[in-house]
Amino acid sequence: MKENLFTPIQIRSLVLRNRIVMSPMCMYSSEDGFVNDFHITHYGSRAAGGTGLIFTEACAISPEGVISKQDLGIYKDEHVEGLKRIVDICHSFGAKVGIQLAHAGRKALGGRPWDRFDKFGYDDELEIIAPSPIPFANNWKTPKEMTKDDIKSVIEKFVKATQRALKAGFDVIEIHAAHGYLLNEFLSPITNKRTDEYGGTFENRIRLLIEIVEKVRATIPNEMPLFVRISATDHVEGGWSLEDSIALAKILKTKGVDVIDCSSGGIAFGAPPNDYYRAHQIVFSETIKKEANIMTMAVGGITSFDMANEIIKNKRADLVAIGRLFLQEPYLPIKWAMSRNIKIDIPNQYQRGYYLDI
Ligand SMILES: Cc1cc2nc3c(=O)[nH]c(=O)nc-3n(C[C@H](O)[C@H](O)[C@H](O)COP(=O)(O)O)c2cc1C
Fold first, then answer.
1. Segments forming the whole domain that contains residue 35
2. Which of 22, 26, 114 most suits a substitution to test ligand 1, by most atoms within 8 Å of the C-beta?
């Protein structure tokens, strides 16, 4: 029988109950990176809703690497306790949990979407860093060009964050190398104008990501899956391309990366796609899966059971990540399964909402 959206999948030793993943989404609700009751409710309810794998929002590996000042963080040992609460609540409902480790580079320290217009973003006290001193847009802060020591320090912070993530009990680590944030800024020739061994050629621009992947892989147990989220293309002429992504994915596979999470864009201000209706990104997960012979996750504008199921059935990706629909509907997997008479575990407390005979 062909696999479908609700067929369990094993990645290394990890078994997911289905192929539905909650995509990492900033919730702009933390103070100094700490988890609070909002996060427990948010992640816990999506786990109760039947999700196979839940990703946390981008968790900052250092204070100046936050996308917004209200991001979750993993730059202090004290963050572990709260993150463990997220893991525990999700596990209690049968979901597995991944953490997205991130540094926002030149796009750091922005505001929350709901007050971005009256309070424009960045915090002047902290310096922002990037491969080259080029601001994201005219009125954005100019980042400091990273020294070799800064690069070394970022690598160490990814390792430290990974060690904390293990303590918190996460099942999966995802390295965020997409959407125009720090690691993406190294990959793309648009943002990386360095003349040392971290800039210039393709081999040099991917060097930082590869070094981080090697260190993270060496830190986590062999049975634990490692994901990398990339922007498969910059959508800009002369920028990072799908061909670059295929070449990168082949190398990442040899370094022990299990899944390429295929998003796109975000490096250049105003470049497409500038809305979120991006079902066209499926072509990236499909092409990278076939060309690099590696598992992929599709994401972006996947808005129905039929779309999601088609992606799995036709082997266009191994996992389907859903973002905004999960903000509308925490019980999306249960809803999709029930609409097709597919068997799914419903938490005992909620069964009477679905079955008449109990
Ligand atoms: C509120 C919000 C926050 C997001 N935060 C992140 C993030 O922290 N990390 C990330 O990789 N992508 C982030 N994204 C992108 C989503 O993970 C996803 O790729 C995108 O929304 C497209 O999927 P969708 O059409 O199912 O929403 C965010 C999207 C939204 C809507």
1. 9-353
2. 26
- Whole-model pTM? 0.97
Q: Which two tokens stand for residue 241?
A: 């391309």
Cis peptide before 273 (omega within 30 of 0): yes
- β partners of residue 97: 54
**Count of domains in the chain?**
1
Q: How far apart are CA 88 and CA 127, in angstroms?
A: 35
Question: Could you tell me the distance, in angstroms and rounded to a whole number, from the CA of residue 357 to the centre of ligand 1?
Answer: 39
- Residue 192 belongs to a domain with what CATH number? 3.20.20.70
Is 212 within a domain? yes
Question: Tens digit of pLDDT for each residue in 267-304?
Answer: 998 887 655 556 889 999 999 999 999 999 999 999 99
Q: Rounded distance, CA 89 to CA 250, Å?
A: 35
| Alpha helices in 49-107, H assignment, sequence order | 79-92
CA of 24 to the centre of ligand 1 (A): 6
